[in-house]
């Protein structure tokens, strides 16, 4: 549509209302794998798809097939598929995880952009050669397990990094959690891991509010949580009180 010489793009997600029940279920599962809550109706489904496109800077005019492909790519964990240099370059959350882990291990220093490039392939070969593996630049299950075995998340991962790599499990209740970033680092990590394990056991769909190593105002936290629209929002805040005398619940109502 043209207006005063400008081209104005509008969302083109009409095909979402024409999905078969099987396609809608598949789309919901892909959104869950990519870290988004399970929608309750078509309006929520459309909103989560729109949020996904915004989060990954994707064109709102994306076709149905390309949407499926992008969601599939963002649902992978390292080891779910074989990664290698190809044309076009492979993209996805598993590639980003590979870049982050190799960077932490000192083999990769280029930008973390979720894309399997020549520099990433070279980093993989260097790692494989260092570990006595076949240095072919192909990340199969053996290489993926070797990389993961050298990274100890409870000691070497910051709270924010651990949050980014967490994949929520399927469940009926969606929960957003904010953890106050104070106190000893090791205590923070232990507490986070305990929270994560408990949520997985209960089958919750969980989103942790990332702190990004800086002070976040309550207003910004509220805006972030409102975009997620969880069923429940929990805040864990530091207190100097040694004895629990009052249990206070703050309810955040989505705007």
Walk me through what this model shows:
It is built from ten helices and five strands. By secondary structure, it is mainly alpha-helical. It has three domains: 72 residues, no CATH class; 59 residues, Orthogonal Bundle (Muramoyl-pentapeptide Carboxypeptidase, domain 1), CATH 1.10.101.10; 78 residues, Rossmann fold, CATH 3.40.50. The strands form two sheets. The protein has a three-stranded parallel β-sheet, with helices on both faces. Helices cover 44% and strands 7% of the residues. The N terminus and C terminus are likely disordered.
- Can you give the mean pLDDT? 76
Count of DSSP H/I helices: 10
Radius of gyration: 21 Å
Helix content: 40-55%
Question: Which outline best applies?
Answer: globular
CATH topology of the largest domain: Rossmann fold
Biggest β-sheet: count, sense, barrel?
A: 3 strands, parallel
Q: In angstroms, what separates the terminal alpha carbons?
A: 31 Å
Beta fraction of the residues? 5-15%
Number of strands: 5
Structural class: mainly alpha
CATH architectural grouping of the largest domain? 3-Layer(aba) Sandwich
CATH C-level label of the largest domain? Alpha Beta
Flag low-confidence runs. Answer: 1-10, 153-160, 162-171, 244-255
Any idea how many domains? 3
How is this fold's topology laid out?
Blueprint (H helix, E strand, L loop, with lengths): L1 E2 L2 E2 L13 H13 L8 H14 L8 H10 L19 H12 L13 H13 L10 H10 L2 H4 L2 H7 L8 E6 L5 H18 L2 E4 L9 H11 L3 E5 L19
Parallel strand pairs: 3-4, 3-5
Antiparallel strand pairs: 1-2
């Amino acid at each position: 549509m043209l207006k005063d010489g400008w081209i104005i793009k509008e969302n083109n997600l009409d095909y979402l209302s024409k999905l078969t029940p099987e396609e809608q279920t598949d789309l919901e599962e892909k959104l869950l794998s990519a870290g988004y809550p399970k929608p309750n109706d078509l309006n929520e489904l459309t909103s989560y798809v729109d949020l996904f496109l915004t989060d990954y800077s994707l064109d709102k005019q994306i076709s149905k097939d390309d949407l499926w492909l992008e969601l599939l790519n963002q649902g992978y964990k390292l080891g779910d598929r074989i990664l290698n240099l190809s044309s076009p370059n492979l993209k996805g959350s598993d590639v980003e995880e590979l870049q982050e882990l190799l960077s932490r291990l000192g083999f990769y220093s280029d930008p973390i952009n979720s894309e399997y490039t020549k520099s990433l392939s070279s980093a993989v070969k260097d790692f494989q050669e260092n570990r006595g593996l076949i240095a072919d630049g192909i990340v199969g299950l053996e290489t993926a397990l070797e990389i993961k075995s050298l990274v100890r998340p409870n000691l070497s991962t910051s709270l924010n990094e651990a949050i980014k790599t967490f994949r929520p499990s399927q469940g009926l209740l969606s929960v957003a959690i904010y953890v106050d970033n104070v106190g000893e680092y090791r205590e923070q990590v232990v507490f986070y891991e305990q929270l994560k394990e408990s949520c997985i056991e209960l089958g919750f769909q969980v989103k942790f509010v990332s702190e990004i190593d800086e002070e976040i105002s309550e207003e910004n936290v509220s805006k972030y949580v409102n975009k997620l629209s969880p069923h429940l929002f929990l805040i864990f805040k530091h207190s100097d009180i040694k004895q629990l005398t009052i249990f206070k619940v703050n309810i955040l109502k989505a705007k």
